[in-house]
Amino acid sequence: MLNLDAVSDRLLEEVADLHKVPVGAFNIRSNGQAVARNSTANIDIIPKENGSGIDIKIKPGTKNESVHIPVVMTASGIKEIVYNDFYIGEGSDVVIVAGCGIDNCGPKDSEHDGIHRFYVGKGAKVKYVEKHYGSGDGAGKRILNPGTEVYMEEDSYMEMEMTQIKGVDDTVRDTKAELGKGARLVVHERLMTHGDQKAVSNYRVDLNGEGCSADVVSRSVAKNDSYQKFDAVLNGNTACSGHTECDAIIMDNGRILAVPGLEANNVDAALVHEAAIGKIAGEQLIKLMTLGLTEAEAEEQIINGFLK
Amino acid sequence: MLELKNISFEVNEGGQDIGILHDISLTIPDGTLTVITGPNGGGKSTMAKLIAGIIKPTSGKIFFNGEDITDMSITDRARAGIGFAFQQPVRFKGLQVFDLIRLATGTKLSTVDACKYLSAVGLCAREYINREVNASLSGGELKRIEIATVLAKASKLSVFDEPEAGIDLWSFQNLIKVFEGMRKDIKDSSILIISHQERILNIADEVVVLSDGKLVAHGPKDQILPDLAGTMSAVKGCGKGLLEEGGEEEC
What we know:
The complex is a heterodimer of chains A (308) and B (251). Chain A is mainly beta and 308 residues long. Chain A has one domain. Chain A has helices spanning 6-16, 282-289, 295-306; strands spanning 25-30, 33-38, 43-47, 53-58, 63-68, 71-73, 79-88, 93-103, 110-120, 125-135, 142-144, 147-152, 157-166, 170-179, 184-193, 198-207, 213-222, 227-236, 240-250, 255-264, 269-278. The mean pLDDT of chain A is 91. Chain B has 251 residues and is α/β, with parallel strands linked by helices. In chain B, helix 3 (97-105) runs parallel beside helix 6 and helix 4 (111-120) packs across helix 6 (139-153). The relative contact order of chain B is 0.18. The radius of gyration of chain B is 19 Å and the shape is globular. In chain B, strands 6-7-8-3-9-10 form a six-stranded mixed β-sheet, with helices on both faces. Chain B has a four-stranded antiparallel β-sheet with strand order 2-1-4-5, covered by helices on one side. Chain B has one domain: 3-Layer(aba) Sandwich (Rossmann fold). Chain B is built from ten helices and ten strands. The N and C termini of chain B lie far apart (37 Å). Mean pLDDT of chain B is 88; it is low at 233-251. The A-B interface holds A 219, 247, 281, 283-284, 286-295, 301-302, 304-308 and B 52, 54, 73-75, 78-79, 82-84, 86, 89-90, 92-96, 99-100, 103-104, 106, 149, 153.
């Protein structure tokens, strides 16, 4: 059994849907230290010798197994950078659940910068789920700066679901990917900012292998005085296809900048960018109000659906 | 029972007040299916929106079951028992068909119960219940989902603004059946449909004819329809337009 306080338990539930010790391989980090770890026959979690993070080694052919590596921080004033490297063996099919929850009731900033590198083997299939969550009403900020690098070998597939719905004051998310022949990367980002939060999301995807493809889709809501920037660059260096999409709702004084970046360096590269930013359509509110919802309830339903 | 008393509605365009509805007084009794018909631009959809509270009249009063609802919000009217099906259904990114039906009933609905409403409008419930109400749905599919939400709301007064618009002929047969079914179970509620379709007019108890923003006829279907068939207001209106443009009187 884990011996964590109630706040940590709540954070774990928010970021990893964990109510108890997970099944399979896991590493749970709390306030700068690993508090629980488990390897399985096929998935090895090894702490780096210099203490800067962990290596997760998944044997070739590992099927239907999962890895949970949640991080929780409840002490004010912690600042850490953690490097986690995933080696995903050929032909495996796994789910990786990461995520970070910060509860900061104190006066100092708390910051977790998780740098994740994925080496996805030939024909491997990965689903990566990452949730970020902040709570606590201290003056100290809750800061998360995730860095993600993805290196995909031939015919590999990676699906990334990245969600940050509440409570994180400042985020700069940098995601880089290099795709080999026939590889496919699918990214779904869900983001909501409120108060005076700031979130920047940068993507740089190099489509290097023939027939590879990438689909990067962001849905976001900026409320109050918050600011978001979505900067997605696709480089089509071969016969490939790529699509990026930024679909955003602004409310109150929320601001969003969407920067499309497509670079086709090969005549057979097919790249598409879509972006739409605007407030909730009045007719959507009216429709839900004719069903008996108040304007505020209608807004909530529309946003919940949008970010689902 | 819905009562419109001396309702007028004006819009201001380019500094000029333009009358859309002129001094309309009308009562929709309980237990009846009333169809409002008339030429395009006659003010029918405006009237539907006034009833739902989406727009407010320039003058006049609206009473619902004896209560003055003229200044009531859309939400309060919906809660008081008025349902409204849009002529052009709204699309939502992310919200699913099930969400809309659940919100319409205002209860924690089971999927099985939600599916009943979709089946009632001729949609294979299993295929649609988890679909997003977005641009991936065709106009006809959206229209039927829109009608399903109004069925699910089970209002005292259900208003349908041109339910046939955008629906193909095959679906139209089903649509008639939906309204026939609603008519059968009407009890003390009432249904108001804005329509040009003869087959919808045929299932009405009462017919109202609106033309140029004025109520030109109102009465039992058997009394209004024969007049309408011969010297149909719509035809008159259409002919007038053509003549003004120098066309032949043959529409």
